[in-house]
Amino acid sequence: MNEEKGILDQETVALDEEAVAVVIIDQTKLPGKTELIRLRNAQEIWDAIYLLKVRGAPAIGVAAAFGIYVLAEQIGTKDYDAFLSEFRKQKAYLDSARPTAVNLSWALNRMEGVVTSHPKESVKEILRLLKKEAQDIKEEDIRVCRSIGEYGLGLVKPGDGILTHCNAGQLATSRYGTATAPIYLGQEKGYHFRVFADETRPLLQGARLTAYELHSAGVDVTLICDNMASMVMKNGWVNAVFVGCDRVAANGDVANKIGTSGVAVLASHYHIPFYVCAPTSTIDLSTSTGAEICIEQRPGEEVTQMWYKERMAPEGVKVFNPAFDVTDHGLISGIVTEYGVARAPYEKAFREIFRKKEGTQE
Ligand code: MRU
């Protein structure tokens, strides 16, 4: 990597066109070390997603899109049916890396659509189209996050205190982040927000990633442990909460990093608006309510010993380690998309949002 570059000058996910490899920042090493790694085979790409070397719903989608393109380049047949069959096998494998963020299957389905809608094209041409689609997914992500930032900025005022949970920042997207987009755009306008970043146990995305990227950008950010959110809210230091999400159900229930629903309950208690920032790619209308969302369970070692010099829990103790929880739509003040802010009733609001989206694509 170029040592002169700050973390926000690095691309979260990129394609090395020459080496035909996915390039990511290994986020498990942050903030201590900025290491770019190249992923070339299915196992490397799957592991990078599962082990959270690349994480955050939109970034997972972009990595999967570049990943399936890289794997498609290696298929090595000119026969369309054989190509499609192998493509689908690789796609199913990548799709199994993490279950909760819908952007993974959303991006892979979009890539598959390129193959299935061109049955008469040569495999060479399909590969060219796959590369373009993956690059488009990344470019769109940047535009979408900027737009979420603009709508989000309209919900706060200069000097406000903003609390966020986990990392829905630039490191979770291609640029700006989702929950951090209003913060970065406000920073450009001199809004001087005071941001509180929950550390986000057990994998510390808030401490290692959000506090790091906001601090690097010169934002006034204060790191707090997850159990301090109530106190900073009670003190009157928080005017709004912005969080990201991994899947939004049709009724407005939202799956996001474990601990998010607790923050929403606190915000409701202290009458603080709680906003979820969601690209439309994260809204899954085929899931009716949050109860249907598959919540990823992760190894207990993440709670008992990871990040500690010595293990901090008795050997053999039972551990419950869900990576996400569901926030009831009744606790959400608004869902900020790239087409505007959806408010309850969400079924109706999402119909409007998708109508707007389809209108801009005609
Ligand atoms: O387990 P992670 O780090 O992938 O979880 C990330 C989150 O929960 C984010 O808030 C979410 O993916 C939105 S990222 C814009």
Protein model, in words:
- This protein has two domains: 7-144, Four Helix Bundle (Hemerythrin (Met), subunit A), CATH 1.20.120; 147-360, Rossmann fold.
- Helices cover 40% and strands 15% of the residues.
- It has helices spanning 42-50, 57-73, 80-95, 102-116, 123-153, 181-188, 205-216, 229-234, 260-269, 301-304, 346-361, and strands at residues 13-16, 21-25, 36-39, 161-164, 194-198, 220-224, 240-243, 247-249, 254-257, 274-277, 283-284, 324-327, 334-337, 340-342.
- The protein has a seven-stranded mixed sheet with strand order 6-5-4-7-10-13-14, sandwiched between helices. The protein has a four-stranded mixed sheet with strand order 11-8-9-12, with helices on one face.
- β8 and β9 form a beta hairpin.
- The longest helix has 31 residues, at 123-153.
- The structure holds 5-S-methyl-1-O-phosphono-5-thio-D-ribulose.
- 5-S-methyl-1-O-phosphono-5-thio-D-ribulose is lined by residues 52, 55-58, 101, 166, 168, 172-173, 177-178, 205, 244-246, 256-257, 323.
- 5-S-methyl-1-O-phosphono-5-thio-D-ribulose (MRU) binds at residues 52, 55-58, 101, 166, 168, 172-173, 177-178, 205, 244-246, 256-257, 323.
